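User: quick one, fold this
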Amino acid sequence: MDRTQQIFQQYHRFDDGALVSIEQQYQPGGVQAVRIVLYARNHGLEGNVWRQVAVTVGDVRELMMKTPGNFINRICCGVKLLRYGDVWCVDIDGTYMHDEPATLDEVRRDGDCYVIGGTVEAIELD
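Assistant:
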């Protein structure tokens, strides 16, 4: 998990990046995963280095995607990596009363695009 948290820090939660894709994956035994590909600047490197990063949420328990037609894939409010008890939540561009939602209920009430699951992993693709 440390590597995933480090990637979120290096990419400044993907602010000003772009959402490339969201893909549902069904695995043997009915376990669902969601793979989110983001394109953003790695602020931990010298220069203006932009890369694609895949964030995979495993053992998915909940997925919400409310997107209007002609959705603009620009990330303005960041991608949040949140921990609530035994689950992880990856929230894309959610706006909340505080920087981060305090509870899953707040995510469910105010979030438009999020995934809740048992595991999360982020890797750089290029």
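User: anything notable?
Assistant: The two ends are 20 Å apart (CA to CA).
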